Amino acid sequence: MAVIEFTPKGDILTANENFLKAVGYTLAELKGGHHRQFCDPAYVDSADYRRFWSDLAAGRFSTGEFKRFVKGGRPVWLQASYNPVRDGAGRVVKVIKFASDVTDAKIAAIDAKGKMDALDKSQAVIEFTPKGDVVTANASFLKVLGYQLAEVTGKHHSMFCDPAFAGSADYARFWQALAAGQYQAAEYKRIGKGGREVYIQATYNPIADDTGAIVKVVKFATDVTDMVKRRIENANLSRQADTELRTVVQQMSGATQMSSEVSSASVQTGAIVNSVAAASEELAASIEEIANSMNAARHGVATVSGSAASANVSAENLNRSADAMSSIVGMIQGIASQINLLALNATIESARAGEAGRGFAVVATEVKNLANQAAHSTQTISKEITTMQTVTREVVSALDEITSSMNQVMDSVAAVASAIEQQSAVTNEISGNMHEAVNAVRAIEETIGRMSQVFGDVVTASEHVKSTVEKLAS
């Protein structure tokens, strides 16, 4: 036991070895000094310190745990009693202090209290009897569940549980295990005031007395409602995302298949377009050849038309010559008729002359025969000229029809040549477009190839995301 004696004013009279050892001083260093040297300066200057010594001087006993400072300023905790000592007249003549060093226990208690205070601030704490009746609960627990202390004290733990669970065999086994001293820890769903769902991460800690009997169960809990609701929501979102990703993967797989089919189709299209381009080139060449032929035909028709026009002119000239010849024949026929008339007159006169005019009659007869022959010849010539005129008119008419037909042919050939030139231009444009189409198809094939690769990468990435989501959901 550490013992030190003071005057009623607090001056040190003496101290035993245990006390000196506890505070680290020698008696010479303490004797005559004041009690305040063991105290915190702020406490020494307080009204409490002055009242402490005035009470002792008045003979009032004081006991408790006191924080004091030993040599070097190290704090110690003493379990002590200050005992006023009176003389025969009843006056307080000194104060004897009996003390025990409880520093280690006090530090442990402070540490434990600090931990409990920290738990009390950060954890929801509630105490139950081994049967589950509520003994007490801290403010954090009451806040989480929404109750006042008076509303839960003496009530059973089942008030915080779903009725179906509270009536189950699992719930009965839960409290049996706690009553048997078995620690329980898990995430629990509980029901707060008004039926509100609350999720807590909690431990149920059976507390035993010195005999090992379970006297109570202390529960430490953390409100994880928001986290659990987010986890449930995330799980729902994960399932939804998984479903959507499955759809995406299927769609992307389908798109990949479609892109492959499109790629194949584009290859076929490229081949067809190449064939069409080649055909267009051949068509352009054929049209160009036809255009050349039509130009040659146009020139030939123009030549024929010119020749027909010249023949028409010649036929007209021939017709005019025939008309002129017909006039001459008419004139010859008139002369022959006059000669014939003269020969008739000469025959008549020679008959009158008798024998003298016989020679003249012979001549007149010859002249008449010649005139008759001339008339007959001119009649033949006239018939031939008439026939020639008829033929000439027919030739002229036919040439007119030929010229008209050739002009129509010329117009048709010109129209066809113009159309062929236009078609040639269109065909050349088509051929050029087809070459551009060939290049475009090649570009499409390359793009589709890249798209197929991208679709494949997206499918792989989607499968990876889907796998990750499934892991998160589980």
From TrEMBL:
Gene Ontology molecular function: transmembrane signaling receptor activity
Q: Per UniProt, what is one Pfam family of this protein?
A: MCPsignal
Give the GO biological process terms.
chemotaxis; signal transduction
Matching SUPFAM superfamilies, A to Z? Methyl-accepting chemotaxis protein (MCP) signaling domain, PYP-like sensor domain (PAS domain)
| Sequence ranges assigned to domain Methyl-accepting transducer in this UniProt record | 237-473
| Chain ranges of the T-SNARE coiled-coil homology domain | 389-451
Q: Which residues form the PAC domain?
A: 62-114, 184-236
> What residues form the membrane-spanning segments?
none
Record keywords = Transducer
An example GO CC term for this entry is: membrane
**NCBIfam families, sorted:** sensory_box (TIGR00229)
Family of this protein: Belongs to the methyl-accepting chemotaxis (MCP) protein family.
PANTHER family cross-referenced by the UniProt entry:
CHEMOTAXIS PROTEIN METHYLTRANSFERASE (PTHR24422), CHEMOTAXIS PROTEIN METHYLTRANSFERASE 2 (PTHR24422:SF10)
Q: What is this protein called?
A: Sensory box protein
